[in-house]
Amino acid sequence: MTILEHDQIDPASLLAWHIAMGADEAIDLAPIDRFTTPSPVAVASQPKQPSRPANGPTPVSAKPAQPTIGAGADVATKTAAACQSLSELESALESFDGGLLKRSAKNTVFSDGIAGAPLMVVGDVPSRDDDQQGSPFSGPAGTLLDKMLAAINMSRNENAYLATVLPWRPLGNSKPDTNLLAVCKPFVERHIALVKPKIVLAMGGALGKAVFGTQDSISRQRGRWQQLDTNGQTFALIATYHPTYLLSQPHLKGAAWQDLLAVKEKLSS
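Below the sequence we write its predicted structure tokens.
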């Protein structure tokens, strides 16, 4: 087979052959002599240019995953113990790393009512209304609670103080597990110690589970006086049904009324 020299090839025939092979478009605006282009080694030795265009996205490094439980019970104990006033305790909760529980909530629910009141009502967890308002016992449950308190001559505006065991609403209003209760226990105990009420009325079973370690349901906890020893002080505590539960189980209002009468009698003694 005869090999033609470069200058012996008819340009028109060569062009027709390129078109037949699919090379029918130029790859640059000006022709490039491939015989005189720099070798790959020479190109590799040149300084590399940034691969990202000047107006391109800025690279972002991944952040370390945040722990689900947050700072933990030990840090909570030290933080709560250092608080000498209700305002300090509220500020400590606002800055505390409450993990997923706090990150999923809209607001920190601290308290409502009169500080130093003889009656302190402690609910389980903030409701959706509480989370939206940043105040415990809001919405329909709060309306029912106000009526219950009024029946024994008590009011959040005059002589009652309201709080919750958990200061943040759990996702889906789920019940707090042992780990969450352990983290929140130092704060709620310190809260009670700073308020110094004559009586603590637990609405729901979470407070009993947190401070006494009981696994009893609220039906077993309610209606009996217990002694809460915390922060060097002693408080009389009684549990009853939460207003939210009573709204769905109105037949239990009679039992809750008996608990309220026990509170009224003890307040007057």
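The longest strand covers residues 233-240.
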